[in-house]
Amino acid sequence: MSSELERAGAALAAESARMAGLGWMRGTSGNLSVTLGRDPLRLAVTASGLDKGELRASDVVVVDEAGAAVPDQPNPDQRPSAEAGLHARIAAVAGAGAVVHVHMLSAVVAGQRWPDGVVLRDLEMLKGLGRRDDDVMTVPVVSNSQDMRVLGDAFEAGFDAATPAVVVARHGLYVWGRDLVQARHRTECLDWLFQFTLAANGFQEVVA
């Protein structure tokens, strides 16, 4: 692999292991990406069908703006997730340097409870998402679909540059940032915010 792709693969493997350990990427679920270039758009995405707690630096696929694997792959047998198309759409629309997709239970439960958007307000942890502690942030919830163009359109329709996340109903959470570390920090903050909001509204605390 090129040195850039190898570094990206190592970072993706490390973050995947961390999030798998938190219970956010059970089985082979979830996927992470980093943006390699923008003209044309290229992303390194974790390979499909692998245990996210045991990825190697080579377990990545380079995809284009549609989420399709580009032909000149270092490891052509690896397949990108079917959800790579939404990663690419988020990277293009939000200018994200990294996208995290996890099956965080607190996000899915919150999306089930508030299908019109999860309102987070007056909490210090909002600062971790670039908002004031007295701010109100509504995380959009979109209907699930196996068609990434449909999901991408739904994401873009509700996109707010100040809200770096979207819940996919009964499925999971997408979070993005300028790099993997910021995307991870935002994901961690959102889990706390969802947990608090559910508990404050009479729901038993959700773990993982």
UniProtKB/TrEMBL annotation:
<dbReference type="GO" id="GO:0046570">
    <property type="term" value="F:methylthioribulose 1-phosphate dehydratase activity"/>
</dbReference>
<protein>
    <recommendedName>
        <fullName>Methylthioribulose-1-phosphate dehydratase</fullName>
        <ecNumber>4.2.1.109</ecNumber>
    </recommendedName>
</protein>
<feature type="binding site">
    <location>
        <position position="101"/>
    </location>
    <ligand>
        <name>Zn(2+)</name>
    </ligand>
</feature>
<dbReference type="Pfam" id="PF00596">
    <property type="entry name" value="Aldolase_II"/>
</dbReference>
<keyword id="KW-0028">Amino-acid biosynthesis</keyword>
<feature type="domain" description="Class II aldolase/adducin N-terminal">
    <location>
        <begin position="10"/>
        <end position="198"/>
    </location>
</feature>
<feature type="binding site">
    <location>
        <position position="103"/>
    </location>
    <ligand>
        <name>Zn(2+)</name>
    </ligand>
</feature>
<dbReference type="InterPro" id="IPR017714">
    <property type="entry name" value="MethylthioRu-1-P_deHdtase_MtnB"/>
</dbReference>
<dbReference type="InterPro" id="IPR036409">
    <property type="entry name" value="Aldolase_II/adducin_N_sf"/>
</dbReference>
<comment type="function">
    <text>Catalyzes the dehydration of methylthioribulose-1-phosphate (MTRu-1-P) into 2,3-diketo-5-methylthiopentyl-1-phosphate (DK-MTP-1-P).</text>
</comment>
<keyword id="KW-0486">Methionine biosynthesis</keyword>
<keyword id="KW-0456">Lyase</keyword>
<comment type="similarity">
    <text>Belongs to the aldolase class II family. MtnB subfamily.</text>
</comment>
<keyword id="KW-0479">Metal-binding</keyword>
<dbReference type="InterPro" id="IPR001303">
    <property type="entry name" value="Aldolase_II/adducin_N"/>
</dbReference>
<keyword id="KW-0862">Zinc</keyword>
<comment type="pathway">
    <text>Amino-acid biosynthesis; L-methionine biosynthesis via salvage pathway; L-methionine from S-methyl-5-thio-alpha-D-ribose 1-phosphate: step 2/6.</text>
</comment>
